[in-house]
Write a structure and sequence with these properties.
heterodimer; A: mainly alpha; 12 helices; B: eight-stranded mixed β-sheet; four-stranded antiparallel β-sheet; 12 strands
Amino acid sequence: MLRLIGRRLLVSIPLLFVVSFLTFGLISLLPGSPSVTILGPTASQQQYQQLDQQLGLNRPLWTQYTSWLARAVRGDFGDSLITGDPVHKVLTDRLPVTLSLIAGATLLAALLGVGLGIAGAVRRGRRADAVNVISLAGSAIPNFWLALVLVATFSVSLRWLPATGYTSLAAGPWPWARSLLLPWLALGLGGTAVIAKQTRDGFAEAMSMDFIRVLRANGLSERSIRYRHALRNAAIGIVTTIGMVFVGLLSGSVLIETVFAAPGLGSATVTATSEHDLPVIQGAVVYFTLLVVVMNLLVDLSYGWLNPRVRR
Amino acid sequence: MTDRPNGFIRALLRQRLGMLAAGWLLLVLLGALAAPVLAPYGSDDADLAHALDGPGRQHLLGVDPLGRDVLSRLLYGAPITLEGVLLAVAVFVLIGTALGLVAGYFGGRADWLISHLTDLVLAIPAVVILLVVLSIFPVNRFAPMLAFGLLAAPGLLRVVRAAALSIREEAYIDAARTFGIGPIRIMARHLLPRMASQIVVQTAVFAGVALVVQSGLAFLGFGPRPPAPSWGGAVADASGVISRDRWLLVPSGAVIALTVLALGLLGDAVRDASTQRWSAAAAGPGRRSSARRQPRRRSAGRQPAADRSSALLAVRGLTVEFDSPAGPVQLVNEVSFELEAGQSLGVVGESGCGKTMTAMAVLGLLPAGVRVSAGTVQFDGHDLAALDTSALARLRGREIGYVSQEPMIALDPTFTVGSQLAEAARRHHGLSRPAARQRALQLLARVRLPEPAVVSASYPHQLSGGIAQRAAIALALAGEPRLLIADEPTTALDVSVQAEILALLHELRRETGLAVLLISHDWGVIADLCERAVVMYAGQVVESCELAGLFADPRHPYTAALLAANPQLAGAGVARIGVPPLPLPTITGTVPAAADWPVSCHFADRCPLVRADCRQDAITLIELAGGRQCRCVLVRNDPERVR
């Protein structure tokens, strides 16, 4: 098991390097220099060059990257060009918001998706059709639009839930959940659709395996065959899909955090993008990629638990 | 199969939802191309007096907060929105197909590199990279869509690679290669057409995702610069006035959702149309069993008491059929046999003769779509058809155990052997957990496994075939059944292991008085274990007899030919009826498909002794002296001798 973790870590860490270097390379393509952003368009040529020098922007790309990396591994991602705050502080403050959002939405999608998927696989007819409709709708309805509809309904009309903002968990679990309920729903529907489909197909496939026939022929109960044996065998595909949904929701959070004005990593990235705050963007990419790496690791670990053949 | 595009298009047209979806997409495309003609107003014509008017005669879909006609904005926004999607789709298809083909067809180092890159790119949250791209090219609305196509291409790449990997192994690709046809030509002429429908499905789904992403970016203000119209921008316009006017959310959201939905449905329709074609080509009942339970026959419950058999298992006139598109097809035709308690009966025949279907019918576990249409199965004098599903389920395991052919896939790979045995023991005897664990170890010891504790703690994949089959037999014995149905229990095993398993079955019979219904194509196995045998051919019993009589004096030409094909058993009796010498110790031809079985003799086409009257009408099973039966015209005319 420890070897499995070690092996997966060895694969994941290069991902961090590649993604951060890719971002770095992309940013270096930027016409003009951050000095223009900082000093504004009216400064003199000399002032720009001086600041370039100061920021190390006139060094070769590779040197720039390695020195950024040397600081980044110590958690120092530089300072925001706009506010001057340390990037790691800006992003670490926002991490709980995004984590609350994504984890809750993934959990919601997993519970609903697995339930619907099993219902669709076990009962044919109307219930299976309902699963189809939900998975179609879930993949077709843009989450930011759904978010607006939810706000219009539950906040503007019914005034049940807050339209925007985020209440920290420190203020108590109920206010926290209240502030996140609509974002969870908006973000979770798409994931529910994907997970329901995977569950239904994986479950049906597991039910068609040889050992199911053998267990049935030897008198095991139908309930155990379905929910112990078939579900366990379908679980690997389902867990993989849940991991993919988590990564997909990271992308979705960028939009949802903007709609709900939740101060998370996504909305920070959007703001930084419109302000060309490159250190923040660079840092956000690392944070997002770290989340992906952690999630992939968790999924891999669950394989070891779910599939005895992976265990060594 | 690739050269029948007409069938494919016909199958596609049959998908009503798919056609509806295609219709909507055409409408959208038309609207995008003819926006200046169709739109009632200009994209920027502002009529502030009517701002936020609802839908009406003048403005079909209402007016936005700046007094602009919503319908016109959506129409003018269509080309701007769709060109971004189109760009992403083009990149997706080109990169995904090209790299996937290269990786799948050439394999080796190219495959290694491309696959690793794929894993890497798929791990990156796409929208974050898009934002990076946007911060670098703030005014270029194509750059992010191009990047999105690139980021998503690995999804298609994987599909194409997998398809190419499997197709390149086929013989005709090899042939093309030896004829000196270049790789590019092979890919274009032979690989691409085979995977075209898969590519279309993936592309349709991706186009939907691209549309959502494009709209999302426009919604965030990273799309076309306002006042240029776009669908995502229209949602953003509506979000600004959400507290005053909720109608505005509807048209923009609906047009995006409907288009994405249509793309998904079109993809589904293409997939269904192509799989329908494949499955139609490979018609047959399939061997998959399914979660659906069979509707049991009720009528057969009215069995006259006098007809009750004293045998442990009595199968009478069992007919099994499945519904093909061309009507019901019989898989098993009026099969009858009896098995006394403690006895063992072999069912012999080539594969495709209905042996397994017969066994599944006895167990009440026929695959979905297959049903018993006539006949009865009695166990211990009780008609199984009269039992409800739960009573039948109780019978399985407790009265009848089952061992399948392939031991390595007969046990659940995700549970230890011990836990599966314990589960069965708990189910059958209501044992406590610790007692069930003890029972599992006893069962493993009973199938002569030297280290029950080790096997009990193992997962199926950790066992050898022989040990796995012993564990599977232990599972079948967990409920202490009186009858064991063993479907080719030794076929998948090495010869030395086969002998051990047969010896084990022997011992179990001796110790417990277990009756065995042994299904096999191997006379050696049958000879080892059975007193009687039923020979099946193409769904029918053609001969049944004591084993000794069968070997010494086979009456049916199929039995004789089957015996002749078994070199160590080919004996004097074979020569006696004059069927051989067959040119080879095999039977020519194969068992015909169930749909092609004639009413007259099923074996006529392969029979060396075939005569005109063999093909006239149905041949009945004839009772011969000594409790044997035979289904042959020659025997009918001369029960003693066939000549």
